[in-house]
Design a protein that fits this description.
Layout lengths: L3 H34 L3 H15 L4 H13 L5 H21 L3 H4 L12 E4 L1 H8 L5 E5 L7 H8 L4 E5 L5 H15 L2 E3 L4 H10 L3 E5 L8 E5 L2 E5 L2 H9 L2 E10 L3 E6 L15 H18 L13
Parallel strand pairs: 1-9, 2-5, 2-8, 3-4, 3-5
Antiparallel strand pairs: 6-7, 8-9
Helix pairs in contact: 2-4, 3-4, 10-11
GO molecular function, one term: acyltransferase activity
Main location: membrane
Subcellular location: Cell inner membrane
Length: about 300
């Protein structure tokens, strides 16, 4: 039987090996990003999309995606399930490449006479909220290029502090955080203390954005595509505490490498018998909203995520 010192030694070596593995993977990712930057933006995005559609089905995550799709759409034939999964890999690969070309992709100009790559639905809502002296919460999901939404808000003079989950790889996480700060303003990594940071922003009359379709083990019971899941109650708790309006937003990929960014009108949150925001019912409402988005464009959502796991 191993002694405590021996166990500690093994653990330290394991941590060093794990960190070395993270470093090697990070260097590979950085090399790919460097090579993509040598290409024109549209060529790099299209090349990456084709590679993603080709390589994605051979990854372990593809099995998760197929299992999730079959559970969500038991009526669909295998050919359609595989097509949705292929579209998903295409979109996720595009997202990877678009990450380094956000300045080239986001060409929206409210005063432009000719359409660009970006069109905005709900521009009048952005303009109205800009002049409101009160906090707002925006939510979205992993559909289309969701990274474009805070950039769009900034175009209308709305500074949004976004909650995001950093990659597990610490080297890639640091790189992503630095790049996102450059392109998207304030960010709050989803770790201990994140809720307090967002609460502070709302308390100062600021705006907060968050993704609401991620797995959260300590969440409230709810359903998504008819299957039980746990949903993060943070949005509902913040809305109840600060009595702030909540707005759904999403990105939709269009033909020809174009995008539509949508900001919808204020969501009416369910209330309990005391008139306060109902946490569980609001969590379910968020899931229902995201599910409707996914059903409309199933190939644009991140099916390989272990949402139900």
């Amino acid at each position: 039987m191993l002694s405590l010192n021996q166990k500690l030694t093994i653990w330290r070596y394991w941590q060093k090996l794990r960190r070395a593995n993270y470093w090697l993977w990070a260097q590979a990712v950085f090399l790919i990003l460097w090579l993509l930057r040598r290409l024109p933006a549209r060529s790099a995005i299209e090349f990456t999309a084709k590679a993603g559609r080709l390589i994605g089905p051979y990854t372990p995550r593809h099995r998760i995606a197929i299992a999730n799709l079959r559970s969500a759409y038991p009526e669909k034939p295998t050919t359609e399930i595989e097509k949705i999964a292929g579209d998903m890999w295409d979109g996720m690969a595009r997202l990877f490449a678009e990450y380094i070309f956000l300045d080239a992709v986001f060409d929206y100009d409210p005063n432009a006479t000719e359409p660009g790559l970006i069109e905005v639905q709900g521009a009048e809502i952005f303009e109205r909220l800009r002049n409101e002296k009160k906090p707002h919460v925006f939510f979205t999901a992993h559909t289309g290029n969701f990274e474009l939404l805070p950039i769009c808000a900034a175009t209308f003079g709305l500074n949004v502090t976004a909650l995001f989950r950093p990659p597990n790889n610490p080297f890639i996480a640091q790189h992503v955080l630095q790049a996102r700060h450059t392109n998207m303003g304030h960010l709050v990594p989803s770790k201990a203390g994140a809720a307090w940071s967002l609460a502070h922003v709302l308390g100062e009359g600021g705006n907060v954005g968050m993704l609401v379709d991620q797995k959260f083990r300590r969440g409230v019971p709810s359903t998504f595509f008819g299957r039980p899941v746990k949903t993060n109650p943070l949005l509902a708790k913040l809305a109840r505490q600060y009595d702030c309006d909540v707005y759904p937003a999403r990105c939709i990929r269009l033909a020809g490498g174009r995008y539509r960014l949508e900001l919808h009108e204020r969501m009416e949150l369910p209330r309990d018998e005391k008139g306060q925001v109902d946490i569980n019912a609001t969590a379910q409402l968020l899931n229902d909203t995201v599910e409707a988005w996914v059903r409309q464009y199933p190939g644009q959502w991140m099916w390989f995520h272990k949402r139900w796991g």
